[in-house]
Amino acid sequence: MKITEPTDQGRREFIGKAAGAAAVAVAPGVFLHSVAESAPRADPVTSKVRWGMLIDTSKCADGCTACVQACDLENGLDLQQKPEGETESAWDQQRSKWIRKVKVRDNLTGRVTGMPVMCQHCEYPPCVDVCPTGASFRRADGVVMVDRHICIGCRYCMMACPYKARSFIHEVVEVKLTSAPRGKGCVESCNFCVHRLDNGGTTTACQDACAKDGHAAILFGDIRDPNSPVSKALAQYSSTQIRPELKLNTGVRYHDL
Amino acid sequence: MKKVQFSEWGIPSPRYWGLLAFLAAVAGIGGLAALYMEHHGHWVTGMSNQVVWGTPHVFAVFLIVAASGALNVASVGSVFGKKLYKPLAPLSGLLAVALLTGGLMVLVLDLGRPDRLIVAMTYYNFKSIFAWNIILYTGFMVIVLFYLYTMKERTMSAYSKPVGVFAFVWRLALTTGTGSIFGFLVAREAYNSALLAPMFIVMSFAFGTAIYILVLIYAFRADNRSLGDVVLFRLKNLLGVFVAGMWYFMLIYHLTNLYITENHDFVAFVLRDGGIYTAAFWLGHTIVGVVMPLGIIYHPVLGQSRGWISGACGMVILGGLATMYLIIIGGQAFPMSLFPGKTIIESGFYDGVNGLPAAYAPSMPEVLLGLGGVAAALLVTMVGIRMLGFLPESLADSVADPHGGETAAAH
């Protein structure tokens, strides 16, 4: 994984010019290197695929936060730095979190259930409806995410999200991953590890971590493909959405909730 | 009714420039506060991922709502044909533009990326009520400026009424839009109500009229212009009706929520358990914003005193800010019902564990930015009345009273 350090503009310009000079120096039509993966990534995503997830709360272990830690590492959330002078408690309420563990108790029966909650990747996402610039968008393959180039930081999507799944970047970002760029003043949330999906991957970091720890509570895949493990599990077990009455047709489903 | 003459605000220059310097300083401090927040990021504010709109939004929405309400005085004159209000119209239009300028300034400077304002102007998602509001605000500005032109330019006076009607309809749409920014949020218990749009409209009438009366009294007194009881008491009574209307909508809002079982927790939060938000409702909205002003306005003795009337206007404004604080911040602090029928007992993201509301305390830069917006609005107003002949030379009863002239039959 590449880490982007604070940009040194002078150095960047120098390297750019040097690369240009090198390209010129080589014979016409011969390039020093080519971007091998550019061809498949140039194809737009289609609605033939809908990425989705089934979370089996009965397998979600109490006290385990493997999915949260894996997400933090995968998306560079662990690289966020508490601004100097900020208290720990304030920072914890302001730092970006894409996935969190939630434990609920049934008011009638007292039954306790634990589960990870993240962006639910709605088919009809309220965050997309309210975004004034269209920065908050849903891809044809069901991934809901933010175009960081046109997000103006109004935070209306955070007001509208029924799952409180989004975070605002409150601080100056010094270090970030190239796969998860991040900047002060924009909103972000779980994007189903979209950088993996766009490079041929078919799993998310949270799913991998959960499986590695032996729980396998998270199943991810293409829910349009009837033969995918997640589709088969959804067909076999009962499942529900969080806040189903809103009829958002979420991509994330829960079993035994 | 005699012909009303208009003239520029003629207070002595040192006093005028002193006033401008003071307002510019407050607005400038607000600008510096915005720069500070922009430079460091929003971590220096009281806002968080739980309460995402803070004190700047309280001021911004208050000013925007008040802006459309300030135009009301002009509308009564041209839309409803009340001649008494006609001389009051230019100041009404100016105040509307000024308050909107101040409110939008605060709103934009609180964005995470205020430098991307051009993006907000060039990329539109037409399903977003927020995007519609951008069009409604800029449109309002243009229409009111044109409305002012028709009022002041003799050759255009024939257009004043139709433009006034259009401006009135537009301002209703604007406040409907502002109320709907909250009303369209299905996710949160405090919002998700069609009542918010009409409630915002009647609140705009109240806030805008209160600000109008205060500015009118101040501008006239400072310039030794005569403001008769007929005009003032008419405006005061109008304010009383609007404040009562605001209270009515708040009552219906709570009664509706009381009827809907799933909203009982929210009503209990506002009326009983919400701490600062409960105080904002009872002390701020109800006592300061409604009961005391109504008591003064309709009191046989106090209601005749300019000092008390000014006080009542000030209370409506303070109560209005408390109401906005309750709606905007209280609405976010109240925990969203993620799992109906269940209690969240642990969460890594402050999801209202055991029903606890989200924490928020306003920070100094947020308050300064908000006050900066108020100062900017007043600055525009003061410059406007100084440069343009928007103030009637006299509103003494003998000049303004319709009963003294040929229009008496209309009343």
Kindly list the characteristics that best describe this protein.
heterodimer; A: 257 residues; alpha+beta; Alpha-Beta Plaits; two-stranded antiparallel ribbon; globular; B: 411 residues; mainly alpha; Formate dehydrogenase/DMSO reductase fold; two-stranded parallel sheet; 3% strand; disordered C terminus
Account of the protein in words:
- The complex is a heterodimer of chains A (257) and B (411).
- With 257 residues, chain A is an alpha+beta fold.
- Chain A has helices spanning 9-25, 38-42, 66-74, 88-94, 126-130, 156-160, 194-197, 205-212, 229-236; strands at residues 3-4, 51-56, 99-106, 112-118, 136-138, 144-146, 167-168, 176-177, 187-188, 218-222, 252-255.
- In chain A, the strands form 5 sheets. Chain A has a 3-stranded mixed beta sheet. In chain A, strands 1-8 form a two-stranded antiparallel sheet. In chain A, strands 3-4 form a two-stranded antiparallel sheet.
- In chain A, β5 and β6 (144-146) form a beta hairpin.
- The longest helix of chain A is centred in the first third of the chain and has 17 residues, at 9-25.
- Chain A starts with a strand and ends with a strand.
- The model of chain A is unreliable at 19-39 (pLDDT under 50).
- With 411 residues, chain B is mainly alpha-helical.
- Chain B has helices at residues 13-40, 55-70, 72-78, 89-109, 117-122, 129-152, 160-183, 196-222, 229-259, 264-273, 276-297, 306-333, 364-387, 397-400, and strands spanning 6-7, 226-227, 342-347, 391-392, 394-395.
- In chain B, strands 1-4 form a two-stranded antiparallel ribbon.
- In chain B, α3 packs across α7 (160-183).
- The two termini of chain B are 13 Å apart.
- In chain B, 53% of the residues are buried.
- Chains A and B meet through α4, β3, β4, α5 and α6 of A and α5, α6 and β3 of B.
- β3 (99-106) of chain A pairs antiparallel with β3 (342-347) of chain B.
